[in-house]
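Q: My labmate handed me this sequence with no annotations at all. I'd like to see what the chain might look like in three dimensions before we decide whether it's worth expressing. Could you predict it?
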Amino acid sequence: HAHGHVDLPGGRIHKSENLFDALRRELAEELNCTEFTFDERPLFSWYWHNEHNDTGILGIAFRVSPKKLTDLRNIEDEELLWVSKEELPALDFVGGHRPYYLHYLPKYLDK
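A: Here is what I predict for the chain of 111 residues:
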């Protein structure tokens, strides 16, 4: 949860990183997840324009398979929330991500 809203784990790419280094770092930082496999082909991507400060966000979602689900925990003191695709429409997603999450996530939760 991000200030009462729901969001996927993620973050920014640092100048010294490539996309996959950032993915590894963010998973370790946010979920204590250091042992995992992932498909290098993105599941989906989206662009969101923040009119408040005239910036843009390019979101890229990957399928990640942690080796141990029991080790996952949110290091940033935010609650982890596990939901089914039927529960997605009731969630209060952060920012302008809601339409993208509701459009794309259900397609990939069954795969």
